Amino acid sequence: xxxxxxxxxxxxxxxxxxxxxxxxxxxxxxxxxxxxxxxxxxxxxxxxxxxxxxxxxxxxxxxxxxxxxxxxxxxxxxxxxxxxxxxxxxxxxxxxxxxxxxxxxxxxxxxxxxxxxxxxxxxxxxxxxxxxxxxxxxxxxxxxxxxxxxxxxxxxxxxxxxxxxxxxxxxxxxxxxxxxxxxxxxxxxxxxxxxxxxxxxxxxxxxxxxxxxxxxxxxxxxxxxxxxxxxxxxxxxxxxxxxxxxxxxxxxxxxxxxxxxxxxxxxxxxxxxxxxxxxxxxxxxxxxxxxxxxxxxxxxxxxxxxxxxxxxxxx
Amino acid sequence: xxxxxxxxxxxxxxxxxxxxxxxxxxxxxxxxxxxxxxxxxxxxxxxxxxxxxxxxxxxxxxxxxxxxxxxxxxxxxxxxxxxxxxxxxxxxxxxxxxxxxxxxxxxxxxxxxxxxxxxxxxxxxxxxxxxxxxxxxxxxxxxxxxxxxxxxxxxxxxxxxxxxxxxxxxxxxxxxxxxxxxxxxxxxxxxxxxxxxxxxxxxxxxxxxxxxxxxxxxxxxxxxxxxxxxxxxxxxxxxxxxxxxxxxxxxxxxxxxxxxxxxxxxxxxxxxxxxx
Lengths: 315, 276
Hints:
Helices cover about 70% and strands about 0% of the residues of chain A. By secondary structure, chain A is mainly alpha-helical. By secondary structure, chain B is an all-alpha fold. Chain B is globular and about 75 Å long.
């Protein structure tokens, strides 16, 4: 504080003999009031420019027929929204999300199983951990290519099935059901590792004495899981569920890279990107994006209601 | 006792199966990348071994024709600025919010928290218009600005760490005449090292692997980062799986090296990053 007062006094023009004490602290207080804003200037500017301004604009665009380029745009009221919910081909994409939602369920169960198994003493534990987690770190385009070859006619999958005597000769990405199942399978392959590591971290934060006590009481592995592990990782589990739901709704990379949305694999985000950047229907695309955003916020809100987070102490 | 043995066997079997499921597609791609065009045409099956395991010709053509060198250069440039900016912005925000009591502090914090709920993919249509109007479209600065401006997770991580640094350190420095900026630079920032490591790793991997943002904002071929350059591969190389595979391996390799070198930090980083 000392130097602040000094500085403030120094700038006072031709200070009269008795220094007035009032203005100095006020200046100091002002400086202290301004300092945090100096630190927040850049972060807030970026936050507003790239998060809040787009949301506001997007909602505004969604009520117009703007094409994203021309200076003219007409207000169309809720027209875009009725179009999304009434045009069957636009609504279709929500069914594709179903495949990814189902895959998420498989993924969470598998991740939970492997996390539980690998938090106990298992040989080559670190090797298995690394193997399960590594796919999450791989570039999405590279994964897309790896699995394009995997599902190729005569590619990896066919060759493996051939080893077991099967000769399926199946175009895996050829019809909507098997294509979507294949793509959802790739997304399990890719994201299992993240869920696994989150669960593993949560399980390891449970104090070890609890297991010892349970074992003394004669609890078997399943009982230990049910009564110690499951409640212990509940916060992480619910976080994973939200991430999975919003991830399933916004699936983009894998289907876009592998099929480009062909054969009925178009997801919500692929559709929005096409509407906005290929067909120049910015208005309609914005309405679609608002719908997606609202669904995701709703899911998050419902989850917060059902499982209140005890650790909302950030403020 | 036999039941126990059976259970253990089943556990190892499941782990072995998972290992095969994860590693098989990757191994086949490595094998394919070492085959010649003729071997591919002969159709020995995807699982057959290459005749010459040291045939790196496909890597050379992938590296040259796929413009991988410029892709790695562009990626490095974006990584440097985006990660550096994220660290700076995240730590400054955390410092200002945790160490000062000012008017509108709670609304500011809430603004950052609420933004965390908005997935980037949903607002891209409108963000695109803003980036265009700022004149950043089709330049390396577009992804840099977007990565810096929308990373809320790193702010969380820094906030947690700043909170654990005792305030008495700041006060001692202030008595010695240090201003807010000096305190940030000389005390807070150096003590944030573990948090910085976490953010650098998590953010670095995200930026290196991101496809959506560079794909939308940098259509020029000169501005290809590794994701978009690899994506463009499919056009000219069509069904030349041996070259495409080599390109994919080239992109995966740096990730593998970093992963093996920093395993422990990476696990920690992701647990911290996601659970906040």
